[in-house]
Amino acid sequence: MINIIRELFIQEIKNRLDNKFFIFLAILFLFPYIMFFTRHNSYVFRDALDVYTFMFEGILPLIFVFLTVIIYVGGFSRLLNDRFIVYLRMRAPLKEILISCFLSNAFLTFIVFFLFAFNLFIFSYYIEPILGLVKYQPEVYSLTEKTVILDSYKRFTFTQLLEYGNFVYGFTYSIWIGINAIIYSSLGFFTVILFSKKLIGISFPVLFYIIGSFIFGFSSTLMPYRMADTIFPFSIGQQSIWTNLTTISFLVVINLFLYFFTFKMKITSLENTM
Amino acid sequence: MKLKKGLTALATSLVVLSGGALVNAGTTYSSYQNVSIPGNNNGVATSSTQTKTTTNASSDLSVSYTSNPNSVDARAVGGAGVSGAWVRNVNTGNYALPNPVKAGAATEIQFSTDLFAATTAMTFKWRSN
User: Fold this and answer.
1) What is the DSSP secondary-structure string of B10-31?
2) Is residue A216 in a domain?
3) Which domain, by its residues, includes A182?
4) Which CATH class is domain B2-127?
5) What pLDDT is stored for residue A267 in this prediction?
6) Looking at the predicted structure, is the pLDDT value of residue B18 above 50?
7) What CA–CA distance (Å, rounded) separates A233 from B116?
8) ipTM beyond 0.95?
């Protein structure tokens, strides 16, 4: 079984690495740089952390889940519609096919979004200071070159990790973005299988994220657990990292529920229809 | 006669005081102001207006309360599209906002919330300088 899944997984990844995927990747990776280069003169920056968080501002927090879903789940829903899986079933049981597709989705979305966040970190902390595009002005914030370092530890959630070094923060936060990409795209993966109308399946995680974020914003109790702030914690005061882990745990539980429902119950009806 | 002299002195001192107040308008802190900046849609609110004393001098903003930390950016604006750079994540504390407005022109502070920020209440005082 593991061999079949591994073979299908490798095949699925190869199938996805086409021209369209790389064009999407180029647009995704270039977008924050275009925004930065066109807007950075209109802002005052204290330090490299300010530059890094600036790269995540704008429309990205709004469309993040949509982007995670279109990397793999969009194409996967077409596979379901094209009954391509019927062809694949001649080679392997449906469960193995779906597991390999699930793993392909998790792998691709994690790699893409980890690299997305990590390359912005490398640029902000190591490349931009060499280029000297931004003149840091901590004095505007009543800070000095020394106090701005202490200030950065308390600025946003996860920046507590800066105390252990810039790289620890950048690497951990990039992994965090990658894990969130897996979680939301997995939601889409399961709902695409569950709903007969694929568009509803794809839209579910996007609407869940956007509507949930707005509704949580109306309650001061729920505010710290808001989905958008959990992933991009730059419009909220610093929280304990446990707070963000609570939100993500809740989403993991939903995913587990959907996994069992899909693989234990829905799969039987799928096998009968395909 | 004494009354006339007294009135003249009073009027003179009032003129001097009011004149002085006008000259110093930009270098004296305003009284504390409250604004509510609409959230969720890059909402905008503005401070009271002051007259700039020195061209290009940065304006002092002292925030004593904000209901949502890291939600608000602020910048100084003048007429004819003149504005300073945005200072990000304005929380409680003191800020020196870049303000390129010319001396003698009216200026104010503009606040803006982030895209996903909730409506944010803020208490502050400021001087344009």
Assistant:
1) HHHHHHHHHHHHHHHGGGSPPP
2) yes
3) 2-9+43-273
4) mainly beta
5) 74
6) no
7) 11
8) no
